[in-house]
Amino acid sequence: MAQSALLKSSIAKKYWMALTGLFLCLFLAGHLAGNLQLIFGDALQFNQYALFMTSNPAVKLLSYLTYFSILFHAVDGILLTIQNKKARPIGYAKSNPAANSGFASRNMAVLGTLILVFIVTHMVNFWAKMHFDKKMPVYATTVEMMGQKQDLYVTTSGTYIPVTQVAKDSKEAEEIGAQLYIDHGKDFYNTQAKIKVGEGYKDLHKITFDFFKSKAKLFGAIPNEGLVFTILYVLCMGVLAFHLWHGFQSAFQSLGINNKFTPAIKTFGKLFAVIVPILFAIIPLYIHFVK
Amino acid sequence: MKLDSKIPEGPIAEKWTNHKNHLKLVAPNNRPKIDIIVVGTGLAGASAAASLGEMGYNVKAFCFQDSPRRAHSIAAQGGINAAKNYQNDGDSTYRLFYDTIKGGDYRAREANVHRLAEVSANIIDQCVAQGVPFARDYGGLLDNRSFGGTQVQRTFYAAGQTGQQLLLGAYSALSRQIGLGRVQMFNRHEMLDLVKVDGKARGIIARNLITGEIERHSAHAVIIASGGYGNVYFLSTNAMGSNVTAAWKVHKQGAFFANPCYVQIHPTCIPVHGTNQSKLTLMSESLRNSGRIWVPKKKEDAEAIRAGKLKPTQIAEEDRDYYLERRYPAFGNLVPRDVASRAAKERCDAGFGIEANDTNEGVYLDFSSEIISKGKQAAYAKGNHNPTQEEITILGKQWLEEKYGNLFTMYQKITDENPYETPMKIYPAVHYTMGGVWVDYNLQTNIPGCFVAGEANFSDHGANRLGASALMQGLADGYFVLPYTVSDYLADEIRTGKISTDLPEFAEAENRVKEQINKFLNNNGTKSVDHFHKKLGLIMWNKVGMARNEQGLKEAVAEIAALREEFHKDVYVPGSADELNPELEKALRVADFMELGQLMAMDALQRKESCGGHFREEYQDAEGETLRDDENFKFVGAWEYKGSDISQEVLHKEELKYEYIKIAARNYK
Amino acid sequence: MASKKTININLKIWRQKNAKEKGSMETYKLDNVSTDSSFLEMLDQLNEQLVNERKEPVAFDHDCREGICGMCSLYINGRAHGPDTGITTCQLHMRMFNDGDTIYVEPWRSKAFPVIKDLVVDRSAFDRIQQAGGFVSVNTSGRTIDANATPVPKTDADKAFEAAACIGCGACVATCKNGSAMLFVGAKVSQYALLPQGRVEATERVLNMVRQMDEEGFGNCTNTGACEIECPKGISLENIARMNREYLKASLK
C-alpha cells in the first residue's frame, strides 16, 4: 500500500510536483548565473561555459535530471489538472474567486502550459542548435596583428588557429587545399591525416546575439524579428514570475513544511519569483537595445 | 397501572454497582444474532450505538440530518460536569449528586442522579481516550471552570464548543463501528412509528427523506435518543429540525410521557427581532460572570429607549435597576437560570423592557463595569498605577475580547450592535426540556424493549437542569448505562431469532404512516405548516411559558385543541411523498407538537405548585419566589395516551422518595 | 433592533427536481426582507411566498442556525457561505445586501457532493472518510486510564482543538477551484496526530483517510488557500501541511 501510495495518491502527486518544482528553481538559478555572462562576461567566457555545461559528466547528469523534472512536472501537472477538472463536473453560475485566492495560485496550469511552450521553443532556438545544428558557427575572435585584423579560432586548449586556414568540411578542405577542416561542428581535423588536432567552441554567444538582434522578417511578414523575440521572451518571464510567485512557497506547503519559517520562505519565494525572471528578462533587452 | 421504577435495593452509593453485578448478560457469540435500533445520533444515541456495536450487536442507527455529526448536542457551549475533584476544592460524587437534586428543585429520582454522578468521571476518561481536545492548563492537565448552582469547579470544557467536541468524539466512535460494519447508519431517515409485537418493541417505520420510501426495520430492542421537544414553542435555541416525533410516537404506542411541563428557559439569548425569525441564539451563561443585568428604573426612560430617543449609555447609574443584584444580593447576576429568566420577565411585564419589538421583551447585559474593573487590574499588572480613563477602557475591552471575543463577534454579526460600546440586549428563550418519555432505572419505558436516553427521557434533572449537566447525562446514558441494561433485557431474546418485517404489525404501522402522509398531501388547505407552528408557539410561549396560571393554561388547552383541528383541516403541504419534501417533514413534526403542546398545558395545569422551570403564578411566596408543594406534588407525573383526544390522557404518579438528601427550599438570596 | 429596514431583492436560485434530472437557475423576486433577517430566514420567507402561490418551495439544508452543526451550505454570489468571513450561511444576515440586489444562490459543486434536490447536496463522502480512520480505536470502557494520567502540552491541545473545530460543512470543497477536501481531512488527521491518544494509529489513519478521500473523487490541493479564507471556523492551512507530513512519514514506513 505504502509503495503504490507514493506514486498514485493525491498527496504523493503533490510531493512530486513540489520536488521537481523546487529542483527546477535550482536549475533556474544556475541557468541565470550562466546567462548573466552574456552581459557581464565576454563571448569566449560564455562559450566556454556553454561547452562545460554540455560536456561535464556531472552537469550532464544534472541536465538529464532537469529534463526529467520538466517532463514529470508537466505530466504530473496535467494529470492533476484533469483530475481537478473532473472533481467539479458542473461549475458555478457565479463565482468570485478573487475574494479568497490569488491570481497566480488559481492559474498554475495555464501558466505552466505557457512556460512549457516557452521551454520547447527556447530549446529549439538554442539547445537544439547547440546540440544538433550542423551550421552552428564555431567561435572565433578577432585580433589585431601588426595593424591587420585577423580572425582566429580559439581551441579548448587555449591555442589559436587562423580562420583562413580552416575549411568548413573535409570536402571543401580538399577543394581549396586548406590544412584543417571542421567536423562535428567544433572539432579541427588535419586534412591529410584526418586526425583531430584541436577543438573549438560552438559559438552560442553569437547565436544568442543574432537571435535577439535579427532584423529579418518573422514568417516573412513581421519586420525586426529580434524585437519580437525580445518582447516574447520578456512576456514569458512575466509568466514565469507568476508561476513562481505561487509555486515556490506552495512547494514547501506540499512537502508539509508550514512552521515558524513559513513567513520567511514566503518572502524569499516572492523575491525569487520577481528577481529571477527580471534578471532573465534584462538579458535580451540588453542584447537588443544596448549591444 | 402502577409505575415500577425498578430502583435497586441497598445504600445509594452501592445501588448501581450491585445492580450491574446482577444484570443478565448476553454472551459474545450470541450478540451478532441480536438487532438493536437506535434513533438519534446525538450524544446519547451515538454513544449508545457505538458502545453496543463494539459489544457485537447488530446496530442500526437513524438520524434525520445528513450526517450523524449534525445532531444538536453539537451546539452545547459551556461544558460537561464530572466529579473528578481535580481542582481539590472538595468535589465528590455525593456533591455532584446533591447539587443536581437541589438544582432540579427536588423533583428528580435520587437513584438515577446518583448513578449519573458516579459515572461522570468515567465519561471524561473515555472522552480523553477518544481524542477529545479538552482545554488544558500549562502543566498539560485538564482545566476546569465553574458553572451556575455549584460551589466547586467541576466543569470540563473545550472553549465554547464543548458539545461539539464531545459529539464529534462519540461520532468518531460511531464512525469506527460503521466502518467495521457493526453499525449500519441510516442518515436522512426519520422514524415515524414504533412497531410493537406482542407488547414488545420490535421495530420502527422510517421514512427515507430523500426517496420518500417508507421502510420497515425490525430489531429486538429499540432505543430512542431523539432529544428534547423545545421546538413546540417554534422559537427556541433548538435546531430547526429538532422534534418530538420519535418520542411522541413511542408515547402513542403506550409509553408514558413524564413531566412534560418542565421546560428550561435560558435567561441569556438574543431577543426576537421580528416575525420572520426562525430561531433564537444563546449567549453563553458564562457572560453572566462579567455582565450586569439591568433595565431603566423609570418607565419613561424605557419608553424613550424603545422609541430610539435614548441610548442605554445615556441612562445615569442611579436610574438603572440592577434587578438581580437588588433581589438576590447573595448570588446577584449568577442566580440559576430559571430564577434569572423569571426576573427578566417580571420587569418586562411591568413595562420596563427595552427591546423595540412587538412585545418589548429585552433587558440589558452590561459590561461597562467589568471593562473598568478589569481595565484597572490590567493597568496595575502592567505597572501603571495611575491610568487614565482612556487607558482603562482600552485595557478593559482587551480583557473582554480575550475572554469572550467569539461571543461578542457572534452577537455583533447577528444584531449589528457593538457590545463593547453598548450593552447587549438579551431575553430568555426556551432551551431544554427536562420532561420526556418515562423510563425506569434501566432507562426502559413501560413498553418492554423500548429504551429512551438523553434529553428524550425525563429521568435526571427534575424540574430544572443545571448548566453543563445535559452533556453529562447524554453520554452517561449512552456509554455507561444502556450497554448494561439493554443487554439485561436482551438476555431473554437470544432464542427469538430474526424478527420478520412481514409481520402484520409492521404492515399496520406502515399503513398508519402512509395514511397520515397521504392525508397531508391531499389536504389542499390554504396555510403553510409554519403558519400553524408559529401560532402554536405563541400560545405556548404566552400561556405555558415562563409563568403560568390556571386560567391561561385552561385557555391554552382549549386553544391548542382548536388549533390542532384547524391545522389538520387547513394546512397545505406541497410536493409529493416520494421525494425530498421538507414541508411534509415539518407537517409530520408539527402534528406531534400540537398534541404534545396540549399535554404540556394539561401537565402544567395539574401541577398546582411552582418548582424549577415550572412557575405557577398562584404558587409563589411574598417575594415572588417558587413555592413547592412537597406534600401533594412530590411525584413524577407520567401521562398515558388514550387515543387522539389528548384531553383523555391519564395521569400516573410515581412517588419520589428522598432517603439520602434532606428536602428543603431552594434559596439563592 | 436598531434598523427596521427592509429591502427588495431578486434571487437566482438553482432548482433541480432530484439527483437524476437536470437543473437550472430560476429567478425569484422577494420584497420586504428585513435586513435583520438571516439569509436562511430570507429563504424561509421566499418559501412561505412560494407555498402561498402553490409553487414548490426551495429545498435547502439547515439545522442548528447558529453556525455549529455544519448542515447549511449554499454558494452565495460566488462565495461559499456568502459575502462575509468566519461565518456559516445561517449566520449571514441580509444587512450584507442592498435594496435591488440580485443574489445568486447555488449548491456546493463537487463530484463527491452530488445534488439531491435544489440546493441540497449529499456530503456523506465526509462521513466515509471519517469511517476510514477518523477515530481512536478505543472501546467504551469504565476502566480507561485516568484522564490526567497522560499530560498533553497545552499548545498541542489547543492546536488539536483548533483543528477539531471543523464543522464538516464542506465549504472548503465548495470553494476550492479543484474541489479538494484536504482542509477537512487535514483537520481530522491533525487533531489526532497532535494528541498522544491519537498518535498510536497515526500511520494507518492518514493512509486510510487519504485513500478514501481520493476514492471519493475529490480534487487535489494546489495550495490556493481559498479554503482557509472561506472556512467558517478558520481552520488553518497548517493542518494540510501537517497531513502532508504525516502522509510522507507514513508512506516511508
Automatic annotation (TrEMBL), chain A:
InterPro entries: Cytochrome_b-558, SQR/QFR_C/D
Parts of the chain that traverse the membrane: 65-82, 103-128, 227-248, 268-289
Alphabetized CDD domains for the sequence: SQR_TypeB_2_TM
Key words of the record: Membrane, Transmembrane, Transmembrane helix
Keyword hit for Zinc-finger: no
Domain of life: Bacteria
Native source organism of the sequence: Flavobacterium suncheonense GH29-5 = DSM 17707
Protein name: Succinate dehydrogenase
GO annotation, cellular component aspect: membrane
Keyword Membrane included in the entry's annotation: yes
Automatic annotation (TrEMBL), chain B:
EC number assigned by the record: 1.3.5.1
Catalytic activity entry: a quinone + succinate = fumarate + a quinol
Location of the protein in the cell: Cell membrane
Any one GO molecular-function label of the UniProt entry: electron transfer activity
Gene3D superfamilies, per the entry: FAD/NAD(P)-binding domain (3.50.50.60), Fumarate reductase/succinate dehydrogenase flavoprotein-like, C-terminal domain (1.20.58.100), Succinate dehydrogenase/fumarate reductase flavoprotein, catalytic domain (3.90.700.10)
Entry's Gene Ontology cellular component terms: plasma membrane
Main location (coarse class): membrane
Domain Fumarate reductase/succinate dehydrogenase flavoprotein-like C-terminal: 533-668
Active site: residue positions: 337
Needed cofactors: FAD
The FAD-dependent oxidoreductase 2 FAD-binding domain, residue ranges: 35-471
Coiled-coil intervals, chain numbering: none
GO annotation, biological process: anaerobic respiration
Family the entry assigns: Belongs to the FAD-dependent oxidoreductase 2 family. FRD/SDH subfamily.
Protein name: succinate dehydrogenase
Species of the source: Flavobacterium suncheonense GH29-5 = DSM 17707
Lineage, broadest ranks: Bacteria, Pseudomonadati, Bacteroidota, Flavobacteriia, Flavobacteriales
UniProtKB/TrEMBL annotation, chain C:
Spans through the membrane: none
Boundaries of every 4Fe-4S ferredoxin-type domain copy: 157-187
Cofactor: [2Fe-2S] cluster; [3Fe-4S] cluster
Any single Pfam family the record assigns to this protein: Fer2_3
GO process terms (BP): aerobic respiration; respiratory electron transport chain
One MF term in the entry's GO annotations: 2 iron, 2 sulfur cluster binding
Protein family membership: Belongs to the succinate dehydrogenase/fumarate reductase iron-sulfur protein family.
Protein name: Fumarate reductase
Species per Swiss-Prot/TrEMBL record: Flavobacterium suncheonense GH29-5 = DSM 17707
